[in-house]
Amino acid sequence: MAVIAKIEVQKRNKSRYNVFFTKGQSFEYALSVDEDLLIKHRLTKGLEIDEKTLIQLIDEDEKKKAYHLAINYLSYRMRSVKEMKQYLEKKEKEPKHINAVIDELLQQGLLNDEEFAQAYIRSKQLTLMKGPLKLKQELVQKGVSDAVIDAALATFTEGEQKEKIVTWLEKQQSKKNSKVSSKAFKEKLSSQLITKGYSQRVIVEALQLVDFPEESSEEWEAICFQGEKIRRKLEGKYTGWEYEQRFKQQLYRKGFPMDVIEQYLSEGDK
């Protein structure tokens, strides 16, 4: 049986208290506890504490520490249940304390995967050019279930997706390289949008809503540049009909329409 000799507030954390036990004519540090536990167990100077109560105090205080860590982690942004579990595991908290804290946070509404998924999607819609497939992938990694993700993504309609894509495509037009064909440029943009998480069907429909000015001078400049590269590659290896067919095939693969290719072969490749 131990007797509390002194209780004093910590200097750096006014909500925690150091508890000292009597040891002969002096006293020694025993443990620190949260203010809530101090009140709950009515810890005062002169109180006798047996070993069982001491173990219980230490255990409850460890859970309280885990809870405060969780609250601090939530102060920066919302978290998924999986994120919280992984964070507390990194802090080397006991599994029973982690589970208890998560249950408490769920009951308090401070953890909620449905609200987390909705907020995450809204945030990315406003700040980043991410499509539903990419958002789903990221939410799965954060431990959110497919059903919860799909319900949250239902608010990100195809109409909104197309609007975002059209706005983005219009901004990209100024970045077109005069050395590539218009078709190749559109294919490049389409690939980027797929990487960002948009479906092929939505991308195709959005592309049809954008007016891409195809200036003949830029297209001609591009085919002249690409044609010269191909000419150097094929020259000396092929002649006659085979040379012409291979030339056409490679220009076509680079996105140039056949009428422009024929014009180039008759005017440009001389």
Automatic annotation (TrEMBL):
Question: Subcellular localization, per the record?
Answer: Cytoplasm
GO BP terms in the entry:
regulation of DNA repair
Which Pfam families does the UniProt entry name for this protein? RecX_HTH1, RecX_HTH2, RecX_HTH3
Where does the RecX second three-helical domain start and stop, copy by copy? 112-153
What keywords were assigned to this record?
Answer: Cytoplasm
Has keyword Repeat? no
Its GO CC terms are: cytoplasm
- Limits of the RecX third three-helical domain: 218-265
Q: What region holds the RecX first three-helical domain? A: 66-105
Which NCBIfam families does the record match to this protein? PRK14135.1
State what this protein does: Modulates RecA activity.
Q: Which family does it belong to?
A: Belongs to the RecX family.
The protein in question is named: Regulatory protein RecX
Provide the species name: Halalkalibacter okhensis
